[in-house]
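Aim 2 progress update. The chain analyzed this quarter is reproduced below.
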Amino acid sequence: MLATGALALAGVSQAAPDAGSAPGKSPGLVELGSACIQVGEECQAHCLQQFAGGDTSLAACAKSVAVMLQMCRALVTAAAQSSPRLKDIARVCGQVCQRCMEACRSSASACEKASA
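Predicted structure tokens:
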């Protein structure tokens, strides 16, 4: 579920302006981060539904998405405010999203079994 958004953000540091570049808005990063937040919230809700039913097989995914959501929120804020550290934040966010995507892929079989 989350893999598509995470894949897009995994390369986000490439799209971030250099720290020394002229200040300016980064609407593409704001939109990308916001889209990942939306997908991440849906993923987290799915994990919580599974937990409520007693299935904890998505625990690693839930932990990963919780961190990813916070990093994407930080990215959106930094991009909207043209932070001078945007490239650094985008790089770390991309790494967190990559790990989230890996956890999502590992949990995909559990999600498929739960949906069946």
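Residues 3-9+26-115 form one domain. The helical segments are 3-10, 12-15, 27-52, 59-80, 86-115. These observations will guide the mutagenesis experiments scheduled for the next reporting period.
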